[in-house]
TrEMBL record:
This is Thiamine-phosphate synthase. The gene is thiE. SUPFAM superfamilies: Thiamin phosphate synthase. Mg(2+) binds at residues 87, 106. The lineage of its organism: Bacteria, Pseudomonadati, Pseudomonadota, Gammaproteobacteria, Lysobacterales. Keywords: Magnesium, Metal-binding, Thiamine biosynthesis, Transferase. Condenses 4-methyl-5-(beta-hydroxyethyl)thiazole monophosphate (THZ-P) and 2-methyl-4-amino-5-hydroxymethyl pyrimidine pyrophosphate (HMP-PP) to form thiamine monophosphate (TMP). Gene3D superfamilies: Aldolase class I. Signal peptide: none annotated. It comes from the Bacteria. Belongs to the thiamine-phosphate synthase family. PANTHER family: THIAMINE-PHOSPHATE PYROPHOSPHORYLASE, THIAMINE-PHOSPHATE SYNTHASE. Its EC number is 2.5.1.3. It comes from Lysobacter hankyongensis. 2-[(2R,5Z)-2-carboxy-4-methylthiazol-5(2H)-ylidene]ethyl phosphate binds at residues 152-154, 181, 201-202. HAMAP family: TMP_synthase (MF_00097).
Length: 230
């Protein structure tokens, strides 16, 4: 019987999870792009500048989300960039992604950790609430996210966060993500206040020159050392 060679071939074709890298730098979030090939082209142009890529498409149905995220996975593996699913733990498991980002209504981080495993990257939105960040840390989150720090076209009615949240949450010793209206001009203040990752959608993908925009965000980290080793 030739079952074992066939199984071995299938396993070799399946991209394996990446080791969790230091979480610091540009955190790219995909735009709501219905054309999968165009999405791949847009991501491919800037992926080399990212520390993480989050797949997010609020306008897609389940089939399109699965198809797009599965198509992004080989790109991320080749670039050495972890791929995170927005909200959907089932999708992350189905395609073998590196983790999931959870909003306040997307499930308990501890339960999701039990499903995805000890090495999964699990991020939690904490909005403007330090208590949520403490609870996320206790539940095993890999990083905590605060925002919106500035007005955002993606979520114009989002709660507003203060720089004090970045400073005060240093006690949790988790990477901190800043999101919401971030531009290359205001990015350095966030990094100086403790942001380890800058989450960006339109600031890169809708820029006239997306690779140049991605480089500009990365530059915010060049003269600012992390507050603690990640």
């Amino acid at each position: 019987m030739r079952i074992l060679p066939v199984v071995r071939q299938i396993l070799q074709m399946t991209p394996s999870p990446l080791p969790v890298p230091p979480l610091r730098g540009l955190y790219l979030i995909t735009p709501d792009e219905p054309d999968t090939e165009r999405l791949l082209d847009r991501v491919r142009a800037v992926l080399g500048h990212a520390a993480l890529l989050q797949y997010r498409n609020k306008t897609a149905d389940a089939a399109l989300r699965h198809r797009q995220m599965a198509a992004l996975l080989p790109l991320c593996r080749a670039a050495g960039v972890p791929l995170i699913a927005n909200d959907y733990a089932d999708l992350a498991i189905a395609i073998g992604a590196d983790g999931v980002h959870l909003g306040e209504d997307d499930g308990d981080p501890a339960a999701v950790r039990a499903r995805l495993g000890a090495n999964a990257i699990i991020g939690v939105s904490c909005y403007d609430d330090l208590a949520l960040a403490r609870a996320a840390a206790a539940a095993g989150a890999s990083y905590i996210a605060f925002g919106a720090f500035f007005p955002s076209s993606t979520k114009p009615n989002a709660r507003r966060a203060s720089l004090d949240l970045l400073r005060d949450s240093a006690e949790l010793r988790l990477p901190r993500v800043a999101i919401g209206g971030i531009t290359p001009d205001n990015a350095r203040g966030l990094v100086a206040s403790g942001a380890d990752l800058l989450a960006v959608i339109s600031g890169v993908f809708d820029a006239p020159d997306p690779p140049a925009a991605a480089r500009a965000y990365r530059a915010a980290f060049e003269s600012t050392a992390p507050e603690f080793p990640t």
